[in-house]
Amino acid sequence: MNNTLKTLFPTYSNDLSDALKNALQHDYERTDRFMLRIQVVLMILISTFGAYSSGQFLFTGFSMGLTTAITFLAYSFFKGSALSRSIMASAFMVDSAILIQINGGLIEMHFLIFVLLAVLILYKDILPLVVATVVVYVHHLGFSFLQGIDYRVFDTPIMIFNYGCGFGIVMLHAIFVIGELIAGAFIVIRLTRQFMRISDLEDIVDSLNSISDETRQAASELSVTSNTIAEGASKSSDSLNHIKFRLNEILESVKTYSQTTKGAGEMTNKASASVHMLNEALQEINNSSKNISGIIKTIDGIAFQTNILSLNAAVEAARAGEAGKGFAVVSEEVRNLSQLTSNAALDIEQKITANIKRTESVEHLLEELVSIFEDLQVGINNVEQISQNQQIKIKEIHSKTMEIDQITLSNSVMSVQHKESAKELLEQVDRQQDVVNQLTYKFRIN
User: Fold this and answer.
1) DSSP per residue over 280-349, as a string?
2) Which of 14, 238, 292, 430 holds its CA 20 to 30 A away from the CA of 257?
């Protein structure tokens, strides 16, 4: 039983997806709007041309106006609902009954029933067809009975058939209406299933469109990112080349500085050795000066003794009288020479003593200078060691820079490849979008 109901009324199944329910609801609302327009057209045609032969314009206008007002209220408050579809179907059959009545039951006017039943198929729902069939059956059965008893309203006879009435005729008409109901139900079921399939396909197409848009956006972002990476890689490569150039300059400067420091160290060693040699020479000069000072003292002693001897000789010459005058003169000269010798020796001794002091002062300064040279040599050795360490570090940095340069070059190549891939992806997305647009166009035409 449930399967039969689902087959006859698939749009009322609880198994439908929300997207399909929304699509059906939108289609019902759109069809309700179309049926309301048909009702307005029927009101105009029946109130004018339909009532022309009988002249019942007032009755027809009022009846059709009332029917149209009811359908308008149904559309306004129950748009897209089963109640709205049922009211629209009932109004169509009432329109047919009005047309039949004002034309005295003319059999040709019954054709409008079949036309409107065919129009109700657009709802893709069997319920309006069933409601319309029930309304037609009740109308034919009731009006046939009233026509049979010659029932009148405001002296106007109730008419359903212009060639006589009876239950047999009503049943014959009912058979044709039920036949159209069955045919319409079959068409409605097929249309509904087709609509569901198309709705599912439209969902797929919408998903494809969404995926295409997202893919296009992703491909565009990939292309932009690839361009940015390529530009960044190019700038990084230029910067790395500049860094390598500067590192080479620094390395050469450090090498030159190291060589200069090494030369300065060698010169310092030579200067230190020369200072040592100078210090030793000064010590030898100092020792020689001291020896000379001893000799001068000896000479001074000899001069002193000579002076004493000359004095003794002068005394002896004075005792000798005339015989010792020549000797006295010689003795005086010897004493004068010894005095001069003593003074000269004393002067030389003083200068040598002063020179010894100066030599000792110079030796002290040379010792300080040797200490300074030794400290300078230690500093130069440290600087040389630091320069060597800097050379090692700079070479390591240069090696890492080369590795980074290789990675940057690889990134640049990959960014170009990604850019080409993004371009191909965009072309594929465009082709896919064209196919999706063609499918969408065909579905909309269908």
Assistant:
1) HHHHHHHHHHHHHHHHHHHHHHHHHHHHHHHHHHHHHHHHHGGGGHHHHHHHHHHHHHHHHHHHHHHHHH
2) 238
Whole-angstrom CA distances from 326 to 316, 319, 320, 336, 415 are 12, 13, 11, 15, 127
- Look at residue 327 in the predicted model and tell me its pLDDT: 64
Q: Are 422 and 227 in contact (CB under 8 A)?
A: no
My answer on whether 341 and 410 are in the same domain is yes
* HSE-CB of 213 using CA atoms within 13 angstroms: 6
CA 112-116-121 angle, 5° bins? 155
pTM beyond 0.70: no
Q: How far apart are CA 431 and CA 219, in angstroms?
A: 14
Same domain, 153 and 246: no
> How far apart (Å, rounded) are the C-alpha atoms in residues 399 and 5?
81
Residue 280 has pLDDT above 60, yes or no: yes
Comparing 83-87, 149-153, 190-194, the range with the smallest average pLDDT is 190-194
| pLDDT surpassing 80 at residue 90 | yes
Examine the domain organization and report whether 150 and 284 are in the same domain: no
Phi-psi region of 9 (alpha: psi -120 to 50; beta: other; left: phi over 0): beta
Q: What residues make up the domain containing 420?
A: 221-440
- pLDDT digit string, tens, across residues 1-32: 445 545 555 566 666 677 777 888 898 999 99
Residue at 188 is within a domain: no
Most confident of 3-17, 240-254, 271-285, 390-404: 390-404
Are 147 and 226 found together in one domain? no
List beta partners, residue 152.
157
The angle subtended at Cα 432 by Cα 426 and Cα 433, nearest 5°, is 85
